[in-house]
Amino acid sequence: MTRTITLADGRNLEVECLSCAITSGLIEPTGGVIAETKYFHVHQDVAYPIPGLVILASKRHFYCMDELTIEERLEYIELIYRIREAQRKILGIEKVYYFYNEDTTHHFHLWLVPRYEWMYEFGKSVESLRPVLLHARNNLNNKDNMKRVIDAITNLREELRGIETEF
Ligand SMILES: [Zn+2]
């Protein structure tokens, strides 16, 4: 089943699995690839212009945590650690929400959603996530903020450079 995806830059695309489309290079994510390893792909969320909102997606098409191979598991936790470390060091992000669900239309991917001051007006924890993302999509899609997003991607890429050789 195909669905239409709206990218942060306004493009609409019809894809079967967005994660497959991005990790295979069919879709160039906004700002380009942040990092790529043997089993995973790191990129900015293509739909929501929030600096440092990173998606860690598997390259293999599957949905559930208990489908990870032992090699993927080891890479996964190390990558989460390294991305989080870079978010703090490069972007000064003090708290991150991690979101992942198995009944998604695109395959295995973890959202690392930074918490910024402005987000707290939408509350805390999981119920604030949707309003925060919609606010970003509807109100932060401007030139100044997109520059911050692209700068964050560039700086994270620089910080994670060479990570693929560490596994
Ligand atoms: Zn897929």
Automatic annotation (TrEMBL):
<keyword id="KW-0378">Hydrolase</keyword>
<dbReference type="InterPro" id="IPR036265">
    <property type="entry name" value="HIT-like_sf"/>
</dbReference>
<protein>
    <submittedName>
        <fullName>Diadenosine tetraphosphate (Ap4A) hydrolase</fullName>
    </submittedName>
</protein>
<dbReference type="GO" id="GO:0016787">
    <property type="term" value="F:hydrolase activity"/>
</dbReference>
